Amino acid sequence: MSAVDKAFHGLRHMIASGRLGAGERIPPEADLCEELGVSRGPLREAVRMLAALGVVEPRHGSGTYVSPLRPEDIIGSLSLTLELLPLTGLLEVYEIRRVLEAHVAAKAAARATPDTVDTLFSLIEAMEATEDATEASELDHRFHAEIARTGGNPTLVSLLAVFRARSRKYQVFNLPDGPDLRRKSDEDHRVLAQAIADRDPGAAAGAAEAHVAQTERWLRAYMPPIEENNIPD
Known about the structure:
The chain has 233 residues and is mainly alpha-helical. Helices cover 69% and strands 3% of the residues. Strands 1-2 form a two-stranded antiparallel sheet. α6 runs parallel beside α10. The longest helix is centred in the middle third of the chain and has 25 residues.
């Protein structure tokens, strides 16, 4: 095990065991170096790694503190590694996404307010009206994010946002079949929004799962080179 790994796992254990709690300042460098058996260089690199993961927060002139350790923040850091997945890896993630999108859609149908429904249909209308693929992708993301937010679990909101961010790196709407694919996506959105408006959790879950499955089929059909662009959520 390298010195950096030793420092990283040592600090992680202090936090996981509860010795260092959320919001607490980590001990001085000299004390940590002595306890963990590493020099300052590896220790500082380990702290930088934990900061990138959202586990600690360096504060200028004050020291380094354990973050609030909110699940949604920690989950959000998955984007650092999920962005590295090739398309074949992303397709494996879609099985998880289908389950989670169906779950949050069902929750949203049970909890949606009239304002929620208005927001969803407004986003659909904006998606249908724009000719800009980038704008359509952003509206698509906001549509699904609103459903997840209404579901009431911030951790799921964060996790699904990470999944969607990776899938948006692929573009199909600019392909020859793009207009037809986009119309199908818009239709799926309306079916899903209507199920939520009807407060029908079962129908909402089925619509969400079918929509994600359709996107997965498009990804399988239109393999690279289509990377580094956008795809509907």
